[in-house]
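To close the section, here is one more complete example, presented without commentary so you can practise reading it yourself. The ligand is adenosine-5'-diphosphate.
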Amino acid sequence: MAIKEFQAESKRLMDLMINSIYTHKEIFLRELISNASDAIDKLYYKSVSEGVTGLNREDFFIRIEADKDSRTLTITDNGVGMTPEELDSNLGVIAKSGSLQFKSENEKNDADVDIIGQFGVGFYSAFMVSSKVVVESKAFGAEKGALWVSEGLEGYEITETDWNERGTRITLSIKPDTEEENYSEFLDQYRLSHLVKRYSDYIRYPIKMEMQRSRRKEGSGEEGKEPEYETYFEEEILNSMVPLWKKSKSEVTDEELNNFYKEKFGDWQDPLRVIRTSTEGAATYTALLFVPGTAPYNYYTRDFEKGLQLYASGVLIMDKCADLLPDCFSFIRGLVDSQDLSLNISREMLQHDRQLKLIAGRLEKKIASELKSMLENDREKYEEFWRSFGLQIKYGMYEGYGAKKDELKDLVLFTSSNEKKLTSLKEYFGRMKPEQSCIYYGCGESAGRILALPQAEALMEKGYELLCLTDDVDEFALKMLEKYEEKEFKNITAEGLDLQSDEEKQHTKELADENKGLLEAMGKALEGKVQEVKLNAGLGSHPAALSTQGAISAEMEKVLNNMPA
Ligand code: ADP
Ligand code: MG
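Output:
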């Protein structure tokens, strides 16, 4: 058969494909493995729906072989295969997806066909790393196999082949290395096994590779003899096949979850909490989330990138999908697996974010409720969490509006004058005196300093509790919240703290009138430094204190002045 040219459109698309659609060359492996998995799924589906006997799920496999000498990489599957006509139409026309067709044909039968392919371009990503691609394939039930070969843009040829096994074998001639690009890495067994783990770990069929290993020859290295080594080969299954998050809760131990977290997200510490959730309906997804124990070193810097891993039907699409996490929960690590995402053509991004927004919204609520239950039922752990990430929650409250504030207000803790322990607003509220009209707070460098403020003493004498705000964002966050259970927040150094009874007030007024001259003289002496000198009976044992007028406290003013313009 003569060389067939790709259709003109295909040629242009192929050029685009090879040069610009994908950001990482390495994903070619993901694409070819996904195709192999689709091919097995199709055959498996056939076997079930048409009652074909003699096919066992356990017999299906995908195999990878790398040969450094011939610079070839081979990917074999024993799936449904392709007839010569299918080779022509599926691989000769770019953007024609046999898989999409299969899916639409079979979806009518109400089958749950979880097939990955849909755009008909993934296969061509092989040309990003290959100078030549050979596809040998024998369709299920066919007599003979056929061979498809192409060296890229020029076209392809279909001929006969001796290869006579059901399924498809794709042989890539890996390009020679250039100064800019290293292609040889795709012939390295460790690199390949790493790529399989990274992108295709949850493909449901075993992905096998012969690993070359070395061992000491028996008897060598003993009794003064030189150690000698020999190489041997061992077949390994590279993928774990069943995602941990797809197993039922009773099948997975806490230890497995902790190890999974540590391995996947590079933490040395167990997570404080594991959140598992799956939903069906408007958005079908499974999420496995972790609350880490400590913040990564760059957490509070611009370098930190938030996001969850995103899988589509078990294949990794994105490593850090930022849209899935609100900023206030940016510390969460984990993943989301969904089969109904609209992916763009490179499968590196999502087409529409409606689905994603829906998932993100639900996850946010779930995270908030899990943190709340942690606060209520596992106080010690929550406080550990709070020390690492409390600041972020407070920033979230400051930046939040509407529902966000409500979501966060019961997650916030402050050190309180009550035994100097951390307290939530709810707990503070529960301890309020019947006549107490406000939630009191003071600001300063440390709880110790705040509790030593003159106004604090008077407040505590009354039996009122005081929140100690020691982070810059604290007072801003409370101002955003405005009220908690209809109780206003009040800075104890603000003017008009109003702790006195009417009688006491009357007495203070009389004293002030009597000493009018003195107060005026003091005001004169401090002119330019203070606005007014007033008598204040609410200072406990202290003779004097500073207080501020207006909505901005002295501490807030300090923070605002220190902010970069
Ligand atoms: P997609 O997977 O999005 O459909 P691809 O470009 O990756 O597009 O593949 C094009 C088509 O080629 C597939 O839809 C499928 O019909 C066929 N194909 C590719 N690889 C295989 C394979 N290993 N076995 C059987 N058919 C295959
Ligand atoms: Mg594909």
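Once you have examined the tokens, check your reading against these statements. The first helix runs from residue 8 to 21. Residues 31, 35-36, 39, 77, 79-82, 90-91, 97-100, 117-123, 168 surround adenosine-5'-diphosphate (ligand 1) (CB under 6 Å).
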